[in-house]
């Protein structure tokens, strides 16, 4: 029997923080839904916490099955790195592509693609965080009709700032609040157009709030003590309160007999990943391949006094600051790269970095010459990858290591017979890497993605090793007995991903206070389909969570 479902995602909302704010009475709508229904935490894949959660949700399949691990791709047989964007959904469709039997409305689902198998309406990339697709809709005219009536989302592709830039960060607060309010109005509009079997939207603003305001909200962040007194209130909490109120307004227009699912497919915490993955790992592997040399962020001898944590940057954007730490044997170029004001630097930079010798490529040249992500220092090492035994692939969360393997890479240096030995060597040396301020070991886990050098399964991830960083402390400087000290460098984003999400479910037949145990994000799609009374594909890797009484499930 069909039942309408209203599913509302909070992109990357951290369950421990949501739980705290609900208990303190800050999120009244979600607390009421939880108290009258049920709540549980959902685990997700820890080794790919940023790139895979929404694809996992949409397909009901693990990355091993879809072969989708990241929006960024390494083109095998080359040293090219490129942006491939969202999963194509050719093999596994979005779970809501149910054909003519169900009316479905999808508004601003991130990292989805328009599907002709959906009977209803779809609007994508209106204001989602990192939508990974172009803005559009089915029907085609709907997107512009909604924009004309309700307005654009001012944060589309503009919902980020460097955490040390308080002025830009606080400007972002107003942008996100405007987007939240407009999202609520659009969803109310769409809900009143007809009775949908499924209505799905996702608050991408939750994702941006975690990335950009963690240092102003959560005391465990190392910048909290210095930066939070400079602002009034708690911008992250205020943003989530706006979301909570918006959920209440949306549900006021929902059918009274609807099942309501509020969920997050993954979470957020202090940023323990960005700088280690983009900077420390890339520089570690450079020094490993070229003993005695360093490229970026040389921190001097081990044991020497550390500089204080940076609470402001010398220059107005993060890449400029970090590129200023690049080593150059020429002291004049080294001085100019470090000290020249930005506007003048952009004029002289082509001369500074015009050496014919193979070297790091500057983010300024990358911006002009390629479509890779220039703000990721790992991409600056690309010209040197053919000369390195192993190199760091750009990533948004975990650290990715690619072995420069003979027979696979065009200028491979590592014979297949030495593949396992090199992996083991890197694993051993990386486990010795520590945060230089607290002495915290930097590595939580290292996953070897291939059983052997000959494993060429096309659905495997690009890296040979995946580094899961510790999540205890957001570090800005690391030390290794093998390659020395790297940093300090400025923090980039304040929050980074965690692998846990949550679900709140409320509606007919859902008992209050049911203990869901520990579910998985893979269970979200089959749970929503079961609540709808829709068929669940056999290929799904998850199962419906035990929300409904058995007689309702069977009925």
Automatic annotation (TrEMBL):
| Stored SUPFAM superfamilies | Alkaline phosphatase-like (SSF53649)
Q: Which Gene3D superfamilies match?
A: Alkaline Phosphatase, subunit A (3.40.720.10)
Record-linked Pfam families: Phosphodiest (PF01663)
Protein name in the entry: Nucleotide pyrophosphatase
Source species: Moorena producens PAL-8-15-08-1
């Amino acid at each position: 029997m069909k039942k309408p479902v209203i599913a509302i995602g909070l992109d990357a909302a951290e369950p421990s923080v949501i739980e705290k704010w609900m208990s303190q009475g800050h999120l009244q709508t979600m607390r009421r839904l939880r108290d009258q229904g049920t709540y549980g935490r959902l685990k997700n894949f820890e080794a790919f916490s940023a790139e895979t959660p929404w694809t996992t949700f949409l397909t009901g399949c693990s990355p091993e099955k879809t072969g989708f691990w990241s929006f960024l791709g390494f083109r095998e047989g080359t040293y090219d790195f490129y942006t491939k964007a969202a999963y194509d959904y050719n093999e596994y469709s979005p779970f809501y592509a149910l054909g003519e039997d169900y009316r479905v409305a999808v508004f601003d689902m991130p990292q989805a693609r328009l599907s002709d198998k959906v009977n209803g309406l779809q609007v994508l990339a209106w204001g989602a965080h990192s939508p990974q697709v172009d803005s559009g809709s089915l029907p085609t005219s709907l997107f512009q009709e909604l924009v004309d009536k309700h307005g654009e989302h001012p944060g589309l592709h503009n919902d980020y700032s460097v955490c040390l830039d308080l002025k830009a960060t606080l400007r972002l607060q107003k942008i996100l609040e405007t987007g939240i309010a407009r999202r609520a109005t659009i969803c109310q509009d769409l809900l009143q157009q007809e009775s949908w079997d499924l209505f799905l939207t996702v608050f991408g603003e939750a994702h941006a709030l975690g990335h950009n305001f963690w240092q102003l909200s959560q005391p465990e962040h190392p910048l909290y003590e210095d930066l939070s007194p400079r602002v009034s209130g708690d911008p992250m909490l205020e943003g989530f309160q706006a979301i909570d109120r918006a959920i209440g307004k949306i549900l006021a227009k929902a059918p009274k007999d609807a099942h309501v699912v509020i969920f997050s497919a993954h979470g957020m915490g202090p940023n323990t990943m960005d700088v280690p993955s983009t900077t420390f790992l890339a520089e570690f592997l450079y020094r490993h391949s070229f003993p005695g040399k360093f490229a970026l962020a040389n921190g001097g001898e081990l044991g020497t006094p550390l500089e204080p944590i940076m609470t402001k940057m010398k220059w107005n954007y993060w890449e400029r600051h970090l590129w200023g730490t690049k080593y150059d044997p020429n002291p004049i170029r080294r001085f100019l790269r470090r000290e020249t004001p930005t506007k003048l630097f952009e004029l002289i930079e082509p001369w500074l970095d015009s050496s014919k010798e193979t070297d790091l490529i500057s983010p300024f040249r990358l911006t002009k010459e390629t479509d890779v992500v220039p703000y990721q220092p790992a991409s600056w090492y690309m010209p040197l990858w053919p000369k390195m035994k192993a190199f760091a692939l750009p990533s948004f969360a975990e650290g990715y290591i690619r072995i420069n393997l003979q027979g696979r890479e065009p200028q491979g240096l590592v014979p297949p017979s030495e593949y396992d030995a090199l992996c083991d060597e890197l694993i051993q040396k990386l486990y010795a890497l520590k945060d230089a301020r607290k002495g915290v070991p930097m590595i939580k886990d290292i996953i070897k993605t291939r059983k052997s050098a000959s494993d060429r399964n096309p659905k495997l991830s690009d890296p040979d090793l995946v580094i899961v960083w510790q999540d205890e402390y957001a570090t800005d400087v690391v030390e290794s007995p093998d390659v020395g000290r790297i940093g300090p460098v400025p923090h980039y984003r304040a929050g980074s991903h965690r692998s846990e999400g949550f679900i709140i479910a409320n509606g007919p037949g859902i008992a209050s206070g049911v203990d869901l145990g520990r579910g998985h994000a893979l269970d979200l799609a089959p749970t929503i389909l079961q609540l709808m009374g829709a068929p669940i594909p056999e290929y799904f890797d998850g199962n419906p969570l035990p929300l409904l009484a058995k007689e309702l499930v069977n009925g």
